[in-house]
Amino acid sequence: MNRLLLAMPLFVAGLYTAVPATAAEKLFPRATESDDQLKKLYDDAGDICLHNPSGDVRVAVACKAMTIYGVALNERNWCYGRRSEANAEMRWHRCGTDSERFTLDTLTDFGR
Fold first, then answer.
1. Is the pTM of this model over 0.85?
2. pLDDT tens, residue by residue, 85-96
3. What is the per-residue DSSP string for 37-74?
4. Measured in Å, how far apart are the chain's first and last C-alpha atoms?
């Protein structure tokens, strides 16, 4: 247990070095998934995250996975929803000035 606690700062430091310094840098420039595959992965994670009120770890992971897939799709100029739309109206579309975008800032908020 003590080893795990000692290693935690190194793991957390590793996470922060992966975040791009500028918006022009991409987190996933070498990703091999197609846009359609990423959208399917997002939907599959959403099936677990959005339809399960439990506090299970797998649900938290699925919710965070949605954010990561969303960031990857944003990097490819795909956005989910517009600021003026209700959640039920939101769809994937080519990003515009009024498009919602995903942010990695939400990765630390595990629904608390």
1. no
2. 999 999 999 999
3. HHHHHHHHHHHHHTT--S--HHHHHHHHHHHHHHHHHH
4. 25
